[in-house]
């Protein structure tokens, strides 16, 4: 199995609500996997199961072919999974460097090693061609939406991560900023990272995704290479779970 | 122009200079005397300590309004114990500080475990503590402390009373912890975005809780300073110091960094103190001067910060909602105020951080680099 992340038979329940039912999903390295679905389809629950925020009741997660148990955000970070949340999880009163290192500060003799952190942050941002920020010592609160997204992504890739999960990365952005973030996603893929993008926006999905997986009411309705879909069929899967789609067999595995 | 001269980040320093100049000219004989200098320095130590007590939980986004009452609690405990000669003064002081820490822990319980808004929880605790204070002692207690205890804090050291230096030491310790250790970074992260901090693995609840305990102990220390300085106990002592302390912190939050910070607080405290001193020399026997001045200064400082914040929010994020009042405005101010000048300074190596944080001016320099 050459998939970076494989999910088999995942079930997640919240009280009486069955949020995820028998989800099988594969996320290969060096590709962008788009996770689509209508509101309430279970996209957020699924990524939170991968990120360790939620624990599934049943099912197995394989990481690099080996079964793993992800019980906390720390576990997923240790594996090399980083999540960029929709609300970005940045602290407005801290500057870019401080945000990128939040929770993993470098210290020398127990004190914050600002020089070393600033240097590493600068390198990471330069590596991602994030050049629009004026100073990496400015508070994150003063950045534009696209810049904030870039900082959040840079924060995620800083830790030798192998899989970056992005929740609605372009939801609040304008056209130019969306392009900037999509370019950033492509750059991550070109570096060999696996990227999983949760998105509603089919323009974005078809612009960057190599593979598309679609959730419908907690079940995986379909997953395949992007070329196997067109807009119409994706919408069909999102809204009906694939009842109207005859050209493709859902979940071909 | 305003930004190039740093009026937004250093307004307190300009204000301070203005007071010095104005009152220096109008009241030069009394204003520029070493007696006045010492007096202002010493008179404001208690407010300064309380301000630091307020600052610690504020860094985590938590208000602690019980600090005035905790100061009274510390004073009534140490005074009562000293009056009855049950334990040595020093041990009494320790007991008082522990009691204040416990009071802070109770506030923390309400804030963290029962999810009560910190403003309300500490306001309620403040009344409960006041009740305990009244129950402990109705009458005032005159000079219960031994000379040896008072000489720990009072008594001349390098020209001023020892407790002035204790304030400086406390400020340096807090500055160090808040700005240069992971714990301090986590505290500001908690104050800025608790959810983000939690996702980054910061134990926000524990930080909020501990900050309230630390705040209680520091507030208790303000009571100790009072016992060194005045020596007497009176039920009315304590809550009166709350407002000037809060004013100094919020005014200070608009200084240097754009968020609550130790040296901004100290600069704001003494800028206000010198203004009040000058006014009191001008209007003899005028007790209205202090509250009027502090109130107006606080309103103007926070209004300035919020005004700049509004502009920033409109420009950058149309859907952004401001954070807590005061801190949010101040945060936003830094965002709007990040001028090219500061940027270039900031990107130069902050290696010279160690050079001098003994006086406010030297500190301004250091803080600017890390801003």
Q: Can you tell me about this structure?
A:
The complex is a heterodimer of chains A (253) and B (371). With 253 residues, chain A is of the alpha/beta class. Chain A has a domain at 3-90 and 161-240: Rossmann fold, CATH 3.40.50. In chain A, 32% of the residues lie in helices and 28% in strands. Chain A has a 6-stranded mixed sheet, with helices on both faces. Chain A is globular. The model of chain A has no long low-confidence stretch (mean pLDDT 87). Chain B is mostly helical and 371 residues long. Chain B folds into 2 domains: 1-32 and 242-371, no CATH class; 45-237, no CATH class. Chain B is 72% helix and 1% strand. Chain B contains 18 helices and 2 strands. Chain B has helices at residues 11-26, 28-31, 34-43, 45-59, 67-83, 89-113, 118-136, 147-153, 162-180, 182-192, 194-199, 204-229, 242-253, 262-282, 289-316, 327-337, 340-347, 360-370; strands at 156-157, 160-161. In chain B, strands 1-2 form a two-stranded antiparallel ribbon. In chain B, strand 1 (156-157) and strand 2 (160-161) form a beta hairpin. In chain B, helix 4 runs parallel beside helix 9 (162-180) and helix 15 (289-316) packs across helix 16 (327-337). The longest helix of chain B has 28 residues, at 289-316. Chain B is globular. Residues 310-371 of chain B have low confidence and may be disordered. The chains are: A alpha/beta (253), B mainly alpha (371). At the A-B interface, strand 8 of A face helix 10, helix 11, helix 16 and helix 17 of B.
Question: Can you tag this structure with a few keywords?
Answer:
heterodimer; A: 253 residues; alpha/beta; Rossmann fold; six-stranded mixed sheet; 8 helices; B: 371 residues; mainly alpha; 2 domains; two-stranded antiparallel sheet
